Amino acid sequence: QLQLVESGGGLVQPGGSLRLSCVGSGRTFQYEAIGWFRQVPGKGREAVACVGTDDATYYEDIAKGRFTISRDNAVTTTYLQMNSLKPEDTGVYYCAPVCTVIAVRSWGQGTQVTVSS
Question: What was the pLDDT predicted at 1?
Fold first, then answer.
Protein backbone atom coordinates (compact mmCIF):
# COMPACT_ATOMS: atom_id res chain seq x y z
CA GLN A 1 0.00 0.00 0.00
CA LEU A 2 1.31 3.41 -0.93
CA GLN A 3 2.25 5.55 2.05
CA LEU A 4 2.48 9.31 1.64
CA VAL A 5 4.05 11.93 3.91
CA GLU A 6 3.44 15.65 3.57
CA SER A 7 5.92 18.41 4.37
CA GLY A 8 6.82 21.96 3.47
CA GLY A 9 4.20 23.93 5.35
CA GLY A 10 4.96 26.97 7.44
CA LEU A 11 4.16 30.58 8.15
CA VAL A 12 4.10 32.95 5.20
CA GLN A 13 2.88 36.47 4.65
CA PRO A 14 -0.06 37.20 2.36
CA GLY A 15 1.12 37.22 -1.21
CA GLY A 16 3.95 34.84 -0.42
CA SER A 17 4.71 31.36 -1.69
CA LEU A 18 5.26 27.89 -0.35
CA ARG A 19 6.07 24.57 -1.96
CA LEU A 20 4.58 21.51 -0.34
CA SER A 21 6.00 18.04 -0.88
CA CYS A 22 4.30 14.68 -0.71
CA VAL A 23 6.78 11.80 -0.61
CA GLY A 24 5.58 8.31 -1.37
CA SER A 25 6.98 4.99 -0.29
CA GLY A 26 6.13 1.88 -2.19
CA ARG A 27 6.52 0.68 -5.71
CA THR A 28 3.10 1.81 -6.90
CA PHE A 29 3.70 5.57 -6.74
CA GLN A 30 4.09 5.99 -10.49
CA TYR A 31 0.80 4.14 -11.06
CA GLU A 32 -1.26 6.33 -8.76
CA ALA A 33 -2.92 9.67 -9.27
CA ILE A 34 -2.02 11.94 -6.36
CA GLY A 35 -4.30 14.60 -4.96
CA TRP A 36 -3.74 17.50 -2.61
CA PHE A 37 -6.45 18.40 -0.13
CA ARG A 38 -6.85 20.83 2.70
CA GLN A 39 -8.87 21.54 5.77
CA VAL A 40 -9.27 25.17 6.63
CA PRO A 41 -10.67 26.32 9.99
CA GLY A 42 -14.42 25.92 10.22
CA LYS A 43 -14.74 23.86 7.06
CA GLY A 44 -14.48 20.24 6.08
CA ARG A 45 -11.71 18.81 3.97
CA GLU A 46 -11.73 19.92 0.36
CA ALA A 47 -9.85 18.98 -2.76
CA VAL A 48 -7.24 21.39 -4.08
CA ALA A 49 -5.56 19.77 -7.08
CA CYS A 50 -4.72 16.40 -8.57
CA VAL A 51 -2.08 15.01 -10.92
CA GLY A 52 -2.64 11.85 -12.90
CA THR A 53 -0.24 9.11 -13.85
CA ASP A 54 0.12 10.79 -17.25
CA ASP A 55 0.94 14.14 -15.62
CA ALA A 56 -2.50 15.49 -16.47
CA THR A 57 -3.51 18.05 -13.86
CA TYR A 58 -6.79 19.20 -12.42
CA TYR A 59 -7.40 22.20 -10.19
CA GLU A 60 -10.29 23.21 -8.05
CA ASP A 61 -11.37 26.85 -8.34
CA ILE A 62 -9.55 27.71 -5.11
CA ALA A 63 -6.25 26.75 -6.76
CA LYS A 64 -6.62 27.88 -10.35
CA GLY A 65 -4.09 30.48 -11.38
CA ARG A 66 -2.22 30.36 -8.07
CA PHE A 67 -1.22 26.76 -7.37
CA THR A 68 0.69 24.29 -9.51
CA ILE A 69 0.76 20.56 -8.92
CA SER A 70 3.50 18.38 -10.32
CA ARG A 71 5.10 15.02 -9.77
CA ASP A 72 8.55 13.48 -10.06
CA ASN A 73 8.28 9.73 -10.19
CA ALA A 74 12.07 9.35 -9.97
CA VAL A 75 11.93 10.56 -6.37
CA THR A 76 8.35 9.43 -5.73
CA THR A 77 7.29 12.97 -4.84
CA THR A 78 4.38 15.18 -5.70
CA TYR A 79 4.66 18.93 -5.24
CA LEU A 80 2.17 21.70 -4.71
CA GLN A 81 3.62 25.10 -5.53
CA MET A 82 1.43 27.73 -3.94
CA ASN A 83 1.79 31.36 -4.97
CA SER A 84 -0.13 34.51 -4.09
CA LEU A 85 -1.20 32.97 -0.82
CA LYS A 86 -4.13 34.46 1.03
CA PRO A 87 -5.11 34.27 4.71
CA GLU A 88 -8.03 32.05 3.71
CA ASP A 89 -5.53 29.47 2.46
CA THR A 90 -4.57 28.85 6.07
CA GLY A 91 -5.15 25.24 7.04
CA VAL A 92 -3.74 21.75 7.09
CA TYR A 93 -2.78 20.33 3.71
CA TYR A 94 -2.86 16.64 2.93
CA CYS A 95 -2.03 14.40 0.03
CA ALA A 96 -3.55 11.07 -0.89
CA PRO A 97 -3.42 8.58 -3.78
CA VAL A 98 -6.83 9.66 -5.05
CA CYS A 99 -8.38 12.82 -6.48
CA THR A 100 -11.57 13.20 -4.49
CA VAL A 101 -12.21 13.63 -0.78
CA ILE A 102 -14.77 10.86 -0.66
CA ALA A 103 -12.24 8.36 -2.02
CA VAL A 104 -9.64 8.98 0.66
CA ARG A 105 -9.35 5.91 2.90
CA SER A 106 -7.16 7.45 5.56
CA TRP A 107 -5.57 10.81 6.16
CA GLY A 108 -1.94 11.41 7.02
CA GLN A 109 -0.72 13.98 9.50
CA GLY A 110 -0.74 16.75 6.92
CA THR A 111 1.35 19.90 6.93
CA GLN A 112 0.22 23.18 8.44
CA VAL A 113 0.10 26.28 6.25
CA THR A 114 -0.45 29.62 7.94
CA VAL A 115 -0.83 32.78 5.91
CA SER A 116 -0.67 35.80 8.14
CA SER A 117 1.06 39.15 8.46
Answer: 76
Could you give phi then psi for residue 69, rounded to 5 degrees?
-100, 140
CA distances to 31, 41, 70, 76, 78 from 53, rounded to whole Å, are 6, 31, 11, 12, 11
Mean pLDDT of 66-89: 97
Kindly state the DSSP code that residue 30 receives in the 8-state scheme. G
Q: How far is CA 92 from CA 22, 28, 67, 116, in A?
A: 13, 25, 16, 14
Return the half-sphere exposure (C-beta side, CA atoms, 13 A cut-off) of residue 4: 30
Cβ within 8 Å of residue 84, ≥6 positions away:
15, 17, 66
Q: Contact at 8 Å (CB) between 97 and 10?
A: no
pLDDT confidence of 27, banded at 50, 70, 90? Answer: confident
> To the nearest whole number, what is the mean pLDDT of the chain?
96
Cα angle for residues 96, 22, 115 (degrees, 5° grid)? 100
